[in-house]
Design a protein that fits this description.
The chain has 424 residues and is of the alpha/beta class. It has 13 helices and 14 strands. Strand 3, helix 8 and strand 4 form a beta-alpha-beta unit.
C-alpha cells in the first residue's frame, strides 16, 4: 500500500515537471511521439557522441548557434538597465543639477544592448562600479598638494638638497636591488641628486634602469671591474665612493651627502632626520645577515628560547646623549663568505658607509669649513669607512635619537657568479 502511494506521488511530480517545461503534453507517450522532442533527443545523443570523440561539450556549440537566432530558447532572468530605469525613479535620488564640475553618473549603454551567454544562463553586464579614473587622478593630485602645503607650513622651512651616492655593477640581481633603491628615492619629498658609479664602465642596462626614475642623476663609469671576492669588492666600492665625492667637489653640489648601496633598504624618516646634521652625522644600520646553510641557522637558534635581536651598527651614546663609542660587534660565529657565490654568511665591514652622512661643503676646496676634515686628494682610496675622512672621530653627530632608531637596513644577497639570468 505504501509502495503504491510512493509510485503515485512520483508520477504526479514527474507530470507536473513536464507541464511546466513548455507546450508539450503531460502524458509520457505523447511526449515521446512528439517530433520536436524526438529531434532534440537525437540531437542531444549526437552531441554526446561527438563530445566523447573530440573531448569537449559539443552541445554548448549547438546551443550557441541556436541562441543567436531571433527566437532565443533561453532568456536572461535579469532585467536590463533600461527596464530598471523605468521602474526606479532616479530623479528622486540624484540631484537635477550637477554639483560644481562633477558630471552626473550615466547608465552604461552596453548593459542594455549586450548579451553574454555562459552555458544555459544569461549574464547581465553591470555598469562600472568604480569612479571615473580622471576624477581619481584629480583626487590624488589634490592629496599631494595638501601634503606639500603641510610640509611647507609645519615641516622644514628651508630643506637642503640630498646627494645620494650608489656604487653598482651589472650582475644578476642588479635590477632587483637597484629598482628597490630607486623607488625609495622617488618617494623622497626633497630635491635629490643621485650619483651612480658603475664598475666596468657605463652600461646600457644600468642607464636604462636609472632613466625610469625621472630623478636628477649623474651616471659615471669606473674603469676597474668588480672582483668576485667580498674583501676586494669592499675596497673597490670605497674607491668608487671617493670618485663620487670628487665629482661633488668639482661641481660644487650643495646639500647632504648620503651613501646607499644598491641593496640597502631605507625608512622615509631617514631623509627627514638627516636634515638635522650640521657637518658630519651617523645613524644606526640594522644588519640583516643571511646564511645559505640551514645547519648554521639551526646552530644559532639552538639553546635560545626567544628570538635573537637584530644586530645594529651605529653610534653609542652616554646618559648625556653624547657620542661615547660605536656598536660594531656582530653576534655571528663561524666562517664568513669569501667569494660572492659562497654558501656562508655575508658579513659587513666594521662600520658601513651607509650609516654616515655629511655636509657637501666639507668636500669643497674653498669655503668656510672646519679643519678636522681631510683632503680627499690625499687619500689613497683604501679607507674602510667615512671615519677615514676625519682627523678626529669625536666630531660625529649621532642622529636618530642618538642611534636608538634603526633607519637603514643592510642586506647582501647575490646570485652565483656564473648565473646567466637575466641574459646579458
Amino acid at each position: 500500500m505504501k509502495l503504491s502511494a510512493l509510485q503515485q506521488s512520483y508520477l504526479n511530480r514527474r507530470s507536473n515537471s513536464f507541464r511546466s517545461s513548455g507546450p508539450l503534453d503531460s502524458s509520457t507517450d505523447s511526449s515521446i511521439k512528439s517530433p520536436s522532442a524526438i529531434f532534440w533527443l537525437l540531437l542531444h545523443c549526437l552531441s554526446c557522441l561527438i563530445s566523447l570523440v573530440f573531448g569537449f561539450r559539443f552541445s554548448r556549440l549547438v546551443f550557441l548557434l541556436f541562441s543567436t537566432s531571433s527566437t532565443n530558447l533561453y532568456t536572461s532572468p535579469f532585467h536590463s538597465s533600461s527596464e530598471l530605469a523605468k521602474t526606479l525613479d532616479f530623479h528622486s535620488v540624484l540631484p537635477t543639477k550637477p554639483v560644481g564640475n562633477i558630471p552626473l553618473p550615466s547608465l552604461n549603454d552596453t548593459a542594455a544592448n549586450s548579451r553574454v551567454v555562459v552555458g544555459r544562463h544569461g549574464i547581465r553586464i553591470r555598469p562600472w562600479l568604480y569612479p571615473n579614473p580622471v576624477e581619481v587622478l584629480k583626487a590624488h593630485r589634490i592629496i599631494e598638494r595638501v601634503q606639500t602645503e603641510q610640509r611647507l607650513q609645519f615641516g622644514l622651512k628651508d630643506p637642503r638638497k640630498i646627494i645620494m651616492v650608489t656604487p653598482t655593477y651589472v650582475r644578476t640581481f642588479q635590477a632587483l636591488h637597484l629598482t628597490g633603491v630607486m623607488h625609495s628615492l622617488m618617494l623622497v619629498p626633497y630635491d635629490l641628486v643621485w650619483i651612480v658609479v658603475e664598475a666596468g664602465g657605463i652600461s646600457n642596462e644600468t642607464a636604462s634602469l636609472i632613466a625610469k626614475s625621472d630623478l636628477k642623476t649623474i651616471h659615471v663609469g669606473f674603469i676597474q671591474r668588480m672582483p668576485n671576492s667580498w674583501d676586494e669588492r669592499h675596497k673597490l666600492e670605497s674607491k668608487m665612493r671617493l670618485r663620487a665625492l670628487r665629482i661633488i667637489r668639482e661641481k660644487k653640489l650643495d646639500g647632504i651627502v648620503m651613501f646607499a648601496d644598491d641593496s640597502n633598504m631605507h625608512s622615509m624618516e631617514l631623509f627627514d632626520e638627516i636634515q638635522n646634521v650640521k657637518w658630519f652625522g651617523a645613524v644606526s644600520v640594522g644588519i640583516l645577515a643571511n646564511s645559505a646553510s640551514n645547519d648554521e641557522m639551526v646552530d644559532r637558534k639552538k639553546g635560545k628560547d626567544e628570538n635573537p635581536l637584530m644586530p645594529v651598527q651605529g653610534p653609542a651614546c652616554n646618559v648625556s646623549n653624547m657620542l661615547a663609542g660605536w656598536h660594531t660587534t656582530l653576534p655571528f660565529a663561524g666562517k664568513s663568505a669569501v667569494y660572492i657565490d659562497d654558501r656562508a654568511t655575508v658579513l659587513p665591514r666594521m662600520l658601513e658607509w651607509s650609516g654616515f652622512v655629511l655636509n657637501s661643503r666639507l668636500l669643497w676646496k674653498a669655503g668656510d669649513k672646519p679643519d678636522w676634515i681631510k683632503d680627499i686628494d690625499a687619500l689613497d682610496g683604501d679607507i674602510e669607512n667615512p671615519l677615514g675622512l676625519l682627523k678626529v672621530p669625536w666630531v660625529v653627530e649621532p642622529l636618530g635619537s642618538c642611534g636608538r632608531q634603526g633607519l637603514i637596513w643592510w642586506l647582501r644577497v647575490e646570485a652565483r657568479a656564473d648565473s646567466k639570468f637575466p641574459p646579458s
